[in-house]
Amino acid sequence: MAKKSNPATRRPASAAAALLKSLGITAVSPGVFDGEWSGSGPLLSSFSPNDGRLLAEVRTATPAESERAVARAHAAFQTWRNVPAPQRGELVRQFGNALRAAKRELAMLVTLEAGKIIAEGQGEVQEMIDICDFAVGLSRQLYGLTIASERPDHRMMEQWHPLGVVGVISAFNFPVAVWAWNAALAAVCGDPTVWKPSSLTPLTAIATTRIAERVCRANGVDPAIFSLLIGAGATVGDRLLQDRRVPLISATGSSQLGGRVAETVGRRFGRTILELGGNNAVIVAPSACLDLAERAILFGAVGTAGQRCTTTRRLIVHESIRDTLVQRLVTAYQQVNIGDPARPRTLMGPLINTDAVLDMQAALAAAGQAGAEILYGGEPLTGPKYPGGCYVRPALAAARHDLPIVHTETFAPILYVMTYRDFDEALAWQNEVPQGLSSALFTNNVREAELFLSARGSDCGIANINLGTSGAEIGGAFGGEKETGGGRESGSDAWKAYMRRQTATVNYGARLPLSQGIHFGT
Ligand code: NAD
């Protein structure tokens, strides 16, 4: 089971203990919810990366409890699918309001457990609220088409039905928002969710599920529509992948995880939404506004301590402005206040655990061996301001575009800088990595901008002009191509993945004409 490798201080600070209590988390909390709370599997400890302290322990799911949770979610589906979609939307509206009421506390728990700065913790909960609002509107718009039939006296239409139980596997870096993207949409579409959160962030998942449970109970709805299974990926997660009662698995995590999910779920002809790793580039062209570019790169590369799937990992800058932009970035990096993410003025908190610090060091060493030059930072930070061993200085490194390490997603704040001469070369470099999530171009040249967005431009799921790679809105469909997995979540018509499409034709005539003009029989 994944564990934080921080040196454990075995008690939460008193403020943290009060916060946990207010969110319904006890020193040892049950980690399974399927209408009732249970958990008899091994204990999982959740440590804060902010100071290495133990926050609480969780009793994980046994195989029998995992089995029962899916069975109960499946049973809940039999009822939930018959509830009119706008009524399902009303439940989600109330859930959004409950999140509004708990925003401050839940955001602080995200900060404590995932190490996000408080503004980003609040942003994460706001994202949950926003997707609830979106889903409420959607609950009155789950519409199909009427299609012209080639046969006389026939009407052909397309309708959308609830699909079934959705398994949601989420990553540590968006411990609650990604679940909400799935769960709010699934709920209005008529589908229960069974959530397997990251073992690094079980407490935020319990707190969120408790809020959802309260709203369900107040409305007389079976709370098993928001089920929770905390446990190791390799056991609890894998069972979910193999379970034929779960027609859709939405998995967020590394590309390695995605390969496993695609293979296992594909073998049983289940559906997947895969939201996997990114290796996102910003191209800065000679005409760019450097003020905009600098701010966007700083947020993209340093925000969330470089632990977003959309983090800016590669900077492809024109040779004519390279030195100016790098100098600006070095100055900006020097001013980033690193430290306790719960303090309002902090811009960068810790990495998730000490393993992540080691991964970052290993990536920088590999880059150095391949000829990259560290331009700024990269070192672990120690001393009283940085307890727990998870703090680092963000790194800027000049590197060749084709180094293997540059083509790898290292989940840490490393920005590789490369210098280009002509725009086609920059575009080719942007597209040459295996991942295809987010991309950005800073330019005031309309030809470059339109080329970037054209069929032969960026090959990513997200392409931005004069804004950075990070910080997508929930209204658009979110996801990426290639090893990012091809899934789309959240806005636009992403809801269709959570429903079963049916083409239905009605013959209101007295004859039975066949399509394609076929005559059959005498
Ligand atoms: P991870 O792949 O280590 O874990 C993700 C989840 O998969 C966890 O819940 C884990 O327990 C589970 N898991 C592991 N093995 C499993 C198995 N065999 N069966 C079922 N579940 C299993 O990822 P992480 O370190 O938590 O998160 C970082 C990664 O997630 C990065 O690669 C990042 O880019 C990616 N990510 C992608 C998006 C996106 O929308 N594209 C969003 C956030 C994070």
Structure description:
The protein is α/β, with parallel strands linked by helices. The chain folds into 2 domains: 64-276 and 488-501, Aldehyde Dehydrogenase, Chain A, domain 1 (3-Layer(aba) Sandwich), CATH 3.40.605; 280-473, Aldehyde Dehydrogenase, Chain A, domain 2, CATH 3.40.309.10. Helices cover 36% and strands 20% of the residues. The protein has 13 helices and 24 strands. The strands form 6 sheets. A 7-stranded mixed sheet has the order 3-2-10-9-8-11-12, with helices on both faces. A 7-stranded mixed sheet has the order 15-16-17-14-13-19-20, with helices on both faces. A 3-stranded mixed sheet has the order 1-5-4. Helix 5 (177-189) links the parallel strand 8 and strand 9 (193-196). Helix 3 packs antiparallel against helix 5 and helix 9 (290-302) crosses helix 10. The longest helix is centred in the N-terminal third of the chain and has 30 residues, at 85-114. Residues 1-8 have low confidence and may be disordered.
**CATH C-level category of the largest domain:** Alpha Beta
Query: Any idea what the shape is?
Result: globular
Do you know the CATH architecture of the largest domain? 3-Layer(aba) Sandwich
Which ligands occur here? nicotinamide-adenine-dinucleotide
Q: Distance between termini?
A: 68 Å
What radius of gyration results from the CA coordinates? Answer: 24 Å
